[in-house]
Amino acid sequence: MTHTLPAPTLVNRYRWRVYRCAGLLALVMLASLLLGAGDTGPWRALSTLLGQGSSEERFVLFQLRWPRTLLGLLVGAALGAAGIVLQATTRNPLAEPGMLGVSAGASLAVVIAVALGASSATVNLGVAVAGALVGCALVLLVSRVGSLGDDPVRLVLAGAAFSSLLAALTSLILLHDQRSADEIRFWVIGALAGRSGDTLLWSLPGVIGGLLLLLPAIRPLASLALGERVAAGLGHHPQLTRLWALVAVAILVGTATAAAGPIGFVGLIVPFMARRLVGPDIRRTLLPALLLGPCVLISADIISRLTVRPYELPIGVITAFIGAPILIAVVRGQRMPRL
């Protein structure tokens, strides 16, 4: 008599997929340590990890590649989680921090702070968070006029227009203040390289704080996906939930922008991958997003190092090449998925 094995439960399938995401992240982080634009190749880097290698190779590995890998881990997790939450809040699969004014608002706030005398290396995290919150709130406020928020494409168009306006204001300030332009040029293009160890120290509490603030809103956001009336019937407050979630998004994106500069499309790519992997429920997609975000960002950073060796491309160029086709695919889909 033959016995058939029971089909794996949904919980086991979910755990297995999360484990796969974690394994992929470990491989990507290892690749980030082994690959680079300099003379320290994979085999030399691997021998250095095993305790050998010269002092120069140890410096490259532990003082240059390791900090930017950790920064990619933090920034990628923040942008991935922010993208998932922003899409759940707006019930719009095209919502992304770079398209809804969040990153542009944070960038403008940082540039204004530098123009007023602050240093870009020690810019106050609160400045970037406040700018992100104001930028996102203004876009959502404008989108509510004429019920634009009910149309995913129109909401993105409104966000893109507003983000362009904020970017133009940022460029205008830099054109009229040469000191600010020189101070912030390395930051405004978005990159993981060239950041000091202090960047990791002050960005870690921002990312952890944003994620902790986000946790109480996960269940209400999952109910909100069923509609405001259903969420209210279950005892939740839709407006308060949205406000709470947007504050958490502002902290996450503001921290990421202050640490690595404005990096677009990560908040679009990661939710798209997470939903394909585990479904649309935010209670299931958040954890994969926290793992896939660093995978996408660190992979883009590796590509940026290897494409034009010995130089590096801006990481935002790589994420745009990956994210733009996904954006087009979602827009041109025969049925726009509602979250």
TrEMBL record:
Pfam families tied to this protein: FecCD (PF01032)
Keyword Disulfide bond: no
Membrane-spanning segments: 16-37, 70-88, 100-118, 125-143, 155-175, 200-218, 243-274, 313-331
InterPro entries, sorted: ABC_BtuC-like (IPR037294), ABC_transptr_permease_BtuC (IPR000522)
UniProt entry tagged with the keyword Transport: yes
Keyword line: Cell membrane, Membrane, Transmembrane, Transmembrane helix, Transport
Location(s), subcellular: Cell membrane
Membrane topology: Multi-pass membrane protein
PANTHER family: FE(3+) DICITRATE TRANSPORT SYSTEM PERMEASE PROTEIN FECC-RELATED (PTHR30472:SF1), FERRIC ENTEROBACTIN TRANSPORT SYSTEM PERMEASE PROTEIN (PTHR30472)
Annotated family: Belongs to the binding-protein-dependent transport system permease family. FecCD subfamily.
UniProt name for this protein: Iron ABC transporter permease
Lineage of origin: Bacteria, Pseudomonadati, Pseudomonadota, Gammaproteobacteria, Pseudomonadales
